[in-house]
Amino acid sequence: AVELGRTRITIKNLLQLAHGSVVELDAMAGEPMSVFVNGTLIAQGEVVVVNDKFGIRLTDIVTPSERARKIGH
Questions:
Q1: Is the pTM higher than 0.70?
Q2: Selected residue with higher pLDDT from 3 and 11
Q3: Please, which residues bridge with residue 18 across strands?
Q4: Which domain holds residue 42?
Q5: Cβ neighbours of residue 46 under 8 Å, at least 6 residues apart?
Q6: What are the counts of helices (DSSP H) followed by strands (DSSP E) for the chain?
Q7: How far apart are CA 19 and CA 41, in angstroms?
Q8: What is the pLDDT of residues 4-26, one digit of tens each?
């Protein structure tokens, strides 16, 4: 999973979302995205476009030892 940002909205506003609604996130454009596998952060990256499709260029990869250390705590 790739996390682009987070936000909090009320249930009332959630129920009012419709096609074309825009949900503002806390992340700024151009900020790195977090890449998770099974809920564990494994990398940071940036959005790229490849052949008219979105992709992620990994800019920082969490080492296996760093991941193991985070799981242990």
A1: no
A2: 11
A3: none
A4: 2-72
A5: 30, 32, 33, 56, 57, 59
A6: 2, 4
A7: 31
A8: 788 899 999 999 999 999 988 88
